[in-house]
Structure formats: C-alpha cells, structure tokens
C-alpha cells in the first residue's frame, strides 16, 4: 500500500520539489496538507488533489501515515515531537533540530515508539557522493588527508525566515550543516571542532557566514558557508596520491551529469540522478519495513551533526537559537 503522507507546512520546497516527488512515486501519495493560511493550504491542496487542514488537524487524520515537515528550523522540535506522539513517521527538513538536546529527545522518542524519523539532507542520496566515498575507502586517492568544502548562496529578500533568529535562522543552521554532514559521510563520525569563526549581522541577530575546521584521525576538514555570497556548492577530497573535485555537490539538477575530476586528469564515473526522488523513496522504503538498528544508526549521525553545530557556536561565540 502507498505511504500516505501529510505535508505539514506550505513551504516553497514542499510545493516545488517534495510534493511533486511524493506524487510521482508509486510508493507514496500526498494525503493532506496543513498551513497557517487556509488560502495557501487550499492552493497547495488543489495542486496535489488532497485535503487541506491546519497543523493539529493533519496530525489527527487517520489517512496520514507519515508527515513531511518543511517548517523553519526553529519549529522542527515542536511539530516533529507532536507528529511522533501522534504515531506518524516523520521526514523533517535539515537540520533535524538546531541544537543537540532537542535532537536527542526526538531520536529517543522515535526509537521508543518504533517510528521512522529521517532528516532530509537530500544530497546524501545522490550517487556521486557514494562514488567518492567508495574511492576514499578503496584507496584511489591514497591516504586521505583533507576535505575542503563550501556552500554559499546569494542574499535572500528582506523578511526571509533565514534572517529571523526566533526561527533559528542564520548561515550555520541553513547552510553549515551541509558541509558538516558531508565531512561525517566521507571522513567518519569521529570528527571534532578544531576551530570556527562566525560573522553575525548585528541588525538581524543571525550569523551570515562561517569558517569551520574539523579534525579527527589524521584528517582535517576546512568548511565554509555564506548566506549572502556568490552561489557555490563544491568540495575537494585530497589524499597523499591525488585528489578529487566535485562540483554542484549539494543541489544538482536531476539531469546534471556529475563531474568528478581527479587531479591527474582522470574522472570517476557517476550517473545523473534525481536526489529528491531518491530521498523520498528511501524514506518510504524505511517506513514500509522499519528496522530499529538501522534507524538508531541514522539518528545517531543526525544527533552528532547537531552536536557539531553546538560546538561550532561555542567556538564561534554565537548564541544558540532561541
């Protein structure tokens, strides 16, 4: 039976990307949508031929098996917790929560109730990163020494939620999690924060850019992110024999042919892939056959990401989200 998903929040990513993926896959369907604005919810519902309701109403519906939650990060804890208590599986936009204490509480709750809770870092489902990780493990680069990664986007319009400290806005939460999670994926979970520098906009009260250095087991990761810079999303993994560079790392279009260039002129081969479809399909598969051991491992990595976000704030002298 198709997984019946309720969309809790009418964010642009839900309308343009996740909603169409849920509708396109045979294993998922959009059952209902909830919004703060009845008009916005009704517009979304017409696009996907589903019911429109409010947040609490969606969680009470018997025809909703799982919830996709694209709300601002500052609301992730409250509504993810409510969805889990209502007995729903949850796919929540990244990061799971802005802080590790909240993330641990949600992870414990999901595991105790036998529910799937996934953090929607879609780039992890693209095969180009699987190819790079396999090259790292196979010694194609020699002994890996470093990772350099950057994710930056142009300024957003005034009033954008990313500039609202009450909603856990800022570059670290919105962008910094990507290179941090990439470093975990390629270099392992034993990384710690060696240093960090965050630049905060005094008028808005949120950080706009940052530089983070992670270290562990003979490797370092130099990570940069900028809310208000030239669009950049790329990384390089360097070993003692050669390196590999990955362009369009975090948000490649579905038809993008990855360019995995080795420093000696060779290339690693990876196919084009729709990472949105892949992420949604993986969530549906996990909900169809929940596996406690698998979910415990995935949640541990998500919690570790939030622990690193906390450590970056400490090193960068930026307060935790309110």
From TrEMBL:
Belongs to the Gfo/Idh/MocA family. Residues 3-120 form the Gfo/Idh/MocA-like oxidoreductase N-terminal domain. Pfam families: GFO_IDH_MocA, GFO_IDH_MocA_C3. Keywords: Oxidoreductase. One of its GO terms (molecular function) is oxidoreductase activity. Residues 131-244 form the GFO/IDH/MocA-like oxidoreductase domain. It comes from the Bacteria. Coiled coil: none annotated. It comes from Actinophytocola oryzae. This is Putative dehydrogenase.
């Amino acid at each position: 039976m198709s997984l019946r998903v309720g969309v809790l929040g009418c964010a642009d990513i839900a309308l343009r990307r996740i909603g169409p993926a849920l509708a396109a896959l045979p294993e998922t369907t959009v059952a209902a949508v909830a919004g703060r604005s009845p008009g916005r919810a009704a517009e979304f519902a017409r696009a996907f031929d589903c019911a429109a309701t409010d947040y609490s109403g969606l969680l009470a519906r018997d025809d909703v098996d799982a919830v996709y939650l694209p709300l601002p990060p500052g609301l992730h804890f409250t509504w993810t917790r409510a969805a889990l208590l209502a007995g729903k599986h949850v796919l929540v936009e990244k990061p799971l929560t802005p802080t590790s204490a909240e993330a641990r509480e949600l992870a414990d709750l999901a595991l105790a109730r036998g529910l799937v809770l996934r953090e929607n870092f879609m780039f992890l489902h693209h095969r180009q990163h699987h190819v790079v990780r396999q090259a790292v493990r196979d010694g194609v680069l020699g002994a890996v020494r470093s990772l350099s990664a950057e994710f930056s986007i142009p300024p957003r319009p005034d009033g954008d939620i990313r500039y609202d400290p009450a909603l856990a806005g800022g570059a670290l939460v919105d962008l910094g999690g990507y290179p941090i999670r990439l470093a975990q994926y390629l270099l392992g979970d034993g990384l710690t924060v060696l240093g960090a520098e965050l630049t905060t906009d005094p008028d808005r009260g949120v950080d706009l850019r940052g530089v983070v250095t992670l270290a562990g087991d003979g490797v370092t990761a130099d990570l940069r992110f900028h809310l208000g810079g030239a669009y950049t999303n790329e990384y390089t993994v360097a070993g003692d024999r050669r390196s590999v560079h990955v362009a369009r790392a975090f948000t490649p279009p579905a038809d993008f042919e990855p360019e995995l260039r080795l420093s000696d002129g060779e290339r690693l081969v990876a196919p084009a892939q729709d990472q949105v479809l892949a992420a949604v399909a993986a969530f549906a598969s996990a909900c169809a056959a929940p596996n406690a051991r698998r979910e415990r491992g995935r949640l541990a990595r998500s919690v570790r990401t939030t622990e690193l976000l906390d450590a970056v704030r400490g090193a960068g002298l930026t307060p935790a989200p309110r």
